[in-house]
Amino acid sequence: MPSVEDRAALRRASVRLDDRTVLHEIELEIGPGVTVIRGRNGAGKTTLLRALAGLIPLSRGTREVGDDVLYLGHRPQLHRALSAQENLAFFARYRGLSTDTIEPALRAWGVVDIARPVERLSAGQRRRASLARIDVERSAVVLLDEPFSELDDEAFTLLAGRITECGARGQTVVIATHGHQELAGYRTVRLDAGTLVG
């Protein structure tokens, strides 16, 4: 059985936002490997990931997840006035990690202007810089919300490869998406109107 550090679970978990129940009695355990959360727009996929990450409170039920979690949401979550390198250095230092891997990781993701402020990068470059955190932080649990958005074909292929590598290394990777049939080979959980349906 996976340890607490490399799995994520919700037990009879519900989430209410703005007086509306968004997740209903979710019973879900995700261990090492890749799991894809599928559902239409508004199904509750983002809320489910944020609940797993501990970013929103549960109105009932419990969450079980270790401290080593990386959540990458719709937005790149980078400070626009800092460079890509400075942003990743902040995250690495916060976790007590070495910053030696940052420059190679950014270059591997195709971010060559690592000293340029993030606000002067294209949307795709910002997304690439954010995804480079996967390589720098190597968290036990990686939560990715529509990670393929704004990526060109090259970056798309790179991310697909990283997802496979992370799963093979024994990391727990959870991807929320409504598309991308190339992810069909992974375990799939379906969400409809805040309820798990398969």
- Order of adjacent strands in the largest pleated sheet: 5-6-7-3-8-9
Q: Quickly name the level 1 CATH class of the domain at 1-68 and 176-198.
A: Alpha Beta
Question: What fold name goes in the CATH topology slot of the domain at 1-68 and 176-198?
Answer: Rossmann fold
DSSP E strands, number: 9
Spell the H/E element sequence: EEEHEEHHHHEHEEE
Shape: globular
User: What CATH architecture of the domain at 1-68 and 176-198 do you see?
Assistant: 3-Layer(aba) Sandwich
What is the tally of helical segments? 6
Strand content: 25-35%
Can you walk me through this structure?
- The protein is α/β, with parallel strands linked by helices and 198 residues long.
- 29% of the residues lie in helices and 28% in strands.
- It has a domain at 1-68 and 176-198: P-loop containing nucleotide triphosphate hydrolases (Rossmann fold, 3-Layer(aba) Sandwich), CATH 3.40.50.
- It has six helices and nine strands; from the N terminus they run E-E-E-H-E-E-H-H-H-H-E-H-E-E-E.
- The longest helix is centred in the last third of the chain and has 16 residues, at 153-168.
